[in-house]
Amino acid sequence: MTTLSRPTLEVSHRGWLTASIMLATIMQVLDTTIANVALPHMTASLGASQEEITWVLTSYIVASAIATPMTGWLVDRLGARMLFILAIAGFTFFSLLCGIATGLEEMVLFRVMQGVFGAVLSPLAQSTILDINPRERMGQAMAVYGAGIMLGPIVGPTLGGWLTEDFGWRYVFLVNLPIGILALFGVAAFMPKTPTKTRRFDFFGFAMLALAVGALQLMLDRGQAVGWFQSAEIWIYTGLAISGLWVFGVHCLTAEDPFIDFRMFRDRNFAMGMLFIFVIGLTLFSGLALLPPLLQSLLGYPVITTGIVMAPRGVGTMISMIVVGRLMGKVDARALVLFGLALTMLAFWMMTGFDTQMDRGPIIWSGLLQGFGLGFVFVPFSTLTFATLATKYRGDGTSMFALVRNVGSGVGISIVTSVLARMVATNHEEIASRLTADAPAVRDLVPGLLAHNQALAAQIDGLVTQQAAMIAYIDNFHLMLIFTAMALPIVFLLRTNTGAPKGPTMPAGDH
């Protein structure tokens, strides 16, 4: 197998182009988490209830999930450069409209359009970075891409909290304007025109995949709020997701020109990569979703302090990206992934020792360790996933990679949210059952409970709730540790390959 000695797509300013497309990617990834902390402030402004305002998040996530698989087809029809320009311009424009929305209906519509235009940015950025870098620079290129993908969710809640408190919730969306304009001009100036390719659009296949993904995301986002399978709504979403996925699979296996060519999954690295990124998605974003409410609601940290305490996680990621970019090609990529998983597991083990009286040290050190470990996981693993995949599948491959990562994240967040709610109630009941009249601790330490002191009873109940919640968080950290361990065997099924991907080398538009 010959060595790939030059980039697939020749560019004259690779560094500036990389910076421009990563600006766009970071902007899109930020929007998956940056609006979370602003929801309470939006409620009054948009005239929505607490339940209705969650559609600001759900609409964006569902629209993005449905549109992501279209990336490969759109690259073929429009070319990577034109698609980038349209996606950045559309995302920036609808960010502006979100920032000036006056009602919930407007906001949900604009968030849907944000999700549609933003969906292609992450897979398109990954595909372009793979196209413009030669084989020997692939590790460093994936380090740059990984930094944007992983830092966005970490920075999002902190940046969102600061903007909301100091400037107002509308700036959570308006902050995208300068970033989007810079990215737009950068791509327009530095990315060469890419050829297009005539490719039939398999509407039926896309419709079935969209039905499955959309229903799954709605089930995950709405499940906890409506009591999961106690609600007919969740049963409907589940039925639609299963039937849509089944029909989509049968159609793609039998159609002459399907929406997704399943032959790409014959590549073992790519197939194992999809499974691996799903498992990592379970832990990456769900772990991040747990920390802000733990720090703010349970430990009483202000938003700014929460951001400062969580910042070392991002620092660890940045350091590891630099280190692993230099190690790629010199050390077996699988060994780097195993090392990163071991550090991530160690970080989750440290987090199982959290308590309500701890100082900031355990939070900072576990975050730094986890961020450092995740950098060692994401970069070499992403490189291995696409190391042997034929170039013609790269557009569809990166879109499926992004879709599976997002679905894994949605499943993970739903699992930890549900486990947290259920375990708080279970732990509260378990602890309260021990505070009986004949318990020595009650007689010796809080005899006022026996005298029916209502104020004291309320105070004790608050302490019980606090301890029950902390135990529930620890239960979730144990679960994240198990999920991370589940990814270990997959690494041994990956193959290292320093040669070129199978199949002909093509320009970026000819995937």
From TrEMBL:
Keywords: Cell membrane, Membrane, Transmembrane, Transmembrane helix, Transport. SUPFAM superfamilies: MFS general substrate transporter (SSF103473). It comes from the Bacteria. Gene3D superfamilies: MFS general substrate transporter like domains, Multidrug resistance protein D. It is a multi-pass membrane protein. Residues 17-499 form the Major facilitator superfamily (MFS) profile domain. The chain crosses the membrane at residues 21-41, 53-75, 82-102, 108-130, 142-163, 169-191, 203-220, 232-253, 274-295, 301-324, 331-351, 363-390, 402-425, 477-494. The keyword Cell membrane applies. Coiled coil: none annotated. InterPro entries: EmrB-like, MFS, MFS_dom, MFS_trans_sf. GO terms for cellular component: plasma membrane. Pfam families: MFS_1. It is found in: Cell membrane. GO terms for molecular function: transmembrane transporter activity. Belongs to the major facilitator superfamily. EmrB family. This is EmrB/QacA family drug resistance transporter. The lineage of its organism: Bacteria, Pseudomonadati, Pseudomonadota, Alphaproteobacteria, Rhodobacterales.
